[in-house]
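Technical appendix A lists one of the benchmark inputs used to test multi-chain prediction within the project. The record comprises two sequence entries:
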Amino acid sequence: MANPVLVDVTRGDVVESRHRGAIAVMDAAGRTVFAVGDVERPAFPRSAVKAFQALPLMESGAADRFGFGDRELALAVSSHNGEEGHVAMARSMLAKAGLDEGCLACGAHWPQREADKARLHRMGAPAGRIHNNCSGKHAGFLCAAVQMGVDPAGYNRPDHPLMREVVAAVEAMTGAAHGADVCGTDGCSIPTFAIPIAAMARGFARFVTGEGLSPERARACTRLRDAAMAEPFMVAGTGRFCTDAMAALGGRTFVKTGAEGVFTAAIPGRGLGLAVKIDDGAARASEAVTAALLIELLGLDADDPARATLDRLAAPEIRSWAGELCGGLRVAADLSAARPD
Amino acid sequence: MANPVLVDVTRGDVVESRHRGAIAVMDAAGRTVFAVGDVERPAFPRSAVKAFQALPLMESGAADRFGFGDRELALAVSSHNGEEGHVAMARSMLAKAGLDEGCLACGAHWPQREADKARLHRMGAPAGRIHNNCSGKHAGFLCAAVQMGVDPAGYNRPDHPLMREVVAAVEAMTGAAHGADVCGTDGCSIPTFAIPIAAMARGFARFVTGEGLSPERARACTRLRDAAMAEPFMVAGTGRFCTDAMAALGGRTFVKTGAEGVFTAAIPGRGLGLAVKIDDGAARASEAVTAALLIELLGLDADDPARATLDRLAAPEIRSWAGELCGGLRVAADLSAARPD
């Protein structure tokens, strides 16, 4: 059974492409508040659960020991652009644990933005591991390993004590079994586990309510979520959905992208978590449908200061290289039932 | 009715993403040789019909007047990487018509490859119109306009005499109505028309058989197709599907990519044309399914010298940034009925 079309891509008056997928909005008790498509089909959350993967950084005491504030914690849950501010912060986190970027197991890639690549090219510098969008998360892993008193080498491997803690944290938050049968390797060379998006959504409801969590874990979740919402630039960067949405919403929502068309969010004011998976893996569609869903879930009226930003993110334009408007994305699924009564 | 899944994207043992779409393989008489999904749903061919759009360059006499050989004609039907060889050839074509890159209406973007961007950044040079992947096609348009004796200004507009010839050529080759109701603006600011992929496929069967075409048009098609197959680097560039496939197949197939998940090909030895449209617009899926289809349509056995290249293109690997194998693409549709008896 095919999932429904969530997003149409138009050019002129024609629908040029279509994105199918599923949406789950859950509360912490596991009640379905809104759902579209197959929310039980296993999907890899990829980077969308970085906030859960950062729990050992908090619970080991590493974040306190190294004096990490909102900016460090936001970078620890980020998929960043590799801009100067991100790179400097990742280096600083590693230095506080007596480590450097040579310890990172995430592999190297160029920064996201042309301006940041240009700066490296003008210096004749190569793409570095520190520019990897996951370098903040990996810096957090390394800091936690140091605090745990274990050898950081191989920290990204499934059998390393640090990674066992990381996987256990995601498994506990989502309540979905993380078995070898659903294990894959993420782009940054750590394990990722395919789980239902309903479980991801429930995990994010727990993340913002603390329901069913130990007091220590609930405090760690609150610190991570507040850090990300307070420092949205650190979570992604210039021109990025996560940064723009959290900056506009000012503490009302935590949002996080994951590769291959995954998006997650958490709404403290409603005690809800949401997860989206686009079947074909397209980020453009996961972003549009997440923005449209947040407009409904938050009941954003036309005069809400965040509304213009969310409207833009929900219906991005497609322009020619010369700047002409050619078409755009439009959400095709009816999301109105997600609006609070 | 949803089109079937053509390509699975795997990670570990799990299918992470799925690409649906349609395939049409036609002969010049309009007989369906092989089809999957809805081959009558209108789709924008985008750059996949550049060979048809280049017919006025040939038929106006411009290509002969300016002494264009295989390399120029291959660039005129290309979506190139903006490598040095492409840029120099586009400049040379414009100079022969007394024009320069300031006449191009395609807009500017950075070259595709990091190495070519790095060279520009080190010089402090901006992205230019000449680097636009369509600059060869636009250079061909401008040369044809000069030869036609019309003012080249506005050559990209639907009502310009040159563009009317271009649209008429695509309409005649495909036999599909190019009305205002299916007209959109392409990324390089020329009109593009949504037509059935069955019509695209039939057009490419005509392209390699000449059936139903005037002798002059049939000769123009033969020259364009032979030029592209003889100079595959000019059609795309380093590491690109069109270049690698045509280089491996050595004159057995013409292939051409189009944006938003379109691929077309033409097989002179079987008198067939094919067109693929991935519903969600993903190039990775259109490439994999086209390669798998060519293996079948050409009956490429294990000992064929092109088989290893086509196998690689049909099942690309997905690796982590550190180089570990994480998963890959695999064609999910049964294409065996496309193999010759």
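The two ends of chain A are 31 Å apart (CA to CA). The mean pLDDT of chain A is 98. Comparable benchmark entries are summarised in Table A2.
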